Amino acid sequence: MSINLSKGQKVDLTKGNPGLKKIMVGLGWDINAYDSGAAFDLDAAAFMLGVYGKCPTEKEFVFYGNLTHPSESVIHMGDNLTGEGDGDDEQIQIDLSKIPSNVEKIAFTVTIYDADQRRQNFGQVSNAFIRIVDETTNVELIRYDLGEDFSIETAVVVGELYKKDGEWKFNAIGSGFQGGLAALCGHYGIEVA
């Protein structure tokens, strides 16, 4: 049975699901009905973080421009340019058994592509969620609905997987950033051109 989380809540992932190796992280959203004159393109990404909360190299930033980590522990299933339809808009597959030992946390983010030029922000986005599914059984384990807490932000850290005492846990974050993907990259130690 799926556990519904609220902001700031933490939950065990592997302790209560022994043998869990392959999970799918699904992220979804809807766009509020109004016309900004441009399509919304939201992008999910995963930042694989080391001990100081930074990406050890640029390879640990998995997004539409770098779909697969060299270890194949994190694989982005591709960019959805519209967010149309029900269910997950973008998915990221995680193999917990392949995550490199120097990675202690994986932060999942959603950003709005070209938000400033298109005058878009997360105040115009609704029904955003993250969910974690056991890929072997196709059972949803965790779901976190973000609610409508945002106004001018153009990037959101949705949640993070983190390792504690050899077990993986999930933390529902839901914190917004201004400055889009560039701000998140700076926060996680990735240099952007």
From TrEMBL:
<comment type="similarity">
    <text>Belongs to the CAPAB/TerDEXZ family.</text>
</comment>
<dbReference type="Pfam" id="PF02342">
    <property type="entry name" value="TerD"/>
</dbReference>
<feature type="domain" description="TerD">
    <location>
        <begin position="1"/>
        <end position="188"/>
    </location>
</feature>
<protein>
    <submittedName>
        <fullName>Tellurium resistance protein TerD</fullName>
    </submittedName>
</protein>
<dbReference type="InterPro" id="IPR003325">
    <property type="entry name" value="TerD"/>
</dbReference>
<dbReference type="InterPro" id="IPR051324">
    <property type="entry name" value="Stress/Tellurium_Resist"/>
</dbReference>
